[in-house]
Specification:
By secondary structure, the chain is mostly helical. The protein is built from 3 helices and no strands. This is Dystrophin. Its main location: membrane.
Length: 141
């Protein structure tokens, strides 16, 4: 009977050790999952800010590209030339004023890339490059 008691005590001890290790592993895994959830929640918030700013900037770029296309050829009369000059000045003034929004958008991009280095940010980089190229094209025309 005493051998059976010793055997049962050993079995119970092994089971307790196994359950303890399993609980420690569960706690560690749960902690990592919760950390990742917190990170993903922050990423979602940052991504939503980025997306809202991207949509705002793209809408503005579209309006400015349309405005540029409507400017047409250089006029031949003084009145037409004066009107075109005013439009050009207004156009370039708006480009200059909006530069701050482009810079903010680029800062949001850099934050996403820096903070979420372990995640795929290639799409964000590509969209930002496209927006910067469109803005630069408006400035060089």
């Amino acid at each position: 009977m005493c051998d059976n008691c010793s055997y049962l005590i050993i079995i119970v001890h092994v089971a307790v050790v196994a359950v303890t290790k399993l609980r420690e592993h569960w706690d560690e895994t749960n902690s990592k999952v919760m950390q990742r959830k917190t990170q993903l929640d922050a990423m979602l918030s940052d991504s939503q800010r980025y997306e809202a700013k991207r949509q705002e900037v793209e809408a503005w770029l579209g309006r400015m590209e349309t405005r540029l296309e409507r400017m047409g050829a250089v006029g031949h009369t003084a009145d037409v030339l004066e009107a075109q000059l005013r439009e050009q000045k207004s156009y370039h003034a708006e480009l200059h004023q909006y530069k701050h929004h482009i810079e903010l958008f680029n800062q949001l991009t850099q934050k996403l890339i820096a903070v979420y280095q372990q995640d795929d940010t290639s799409r964000v980089k590509k969209m930002t490059e496209t927006i910067n190229q469109r803005y630069n094209n408006l400035n060089t025309r």
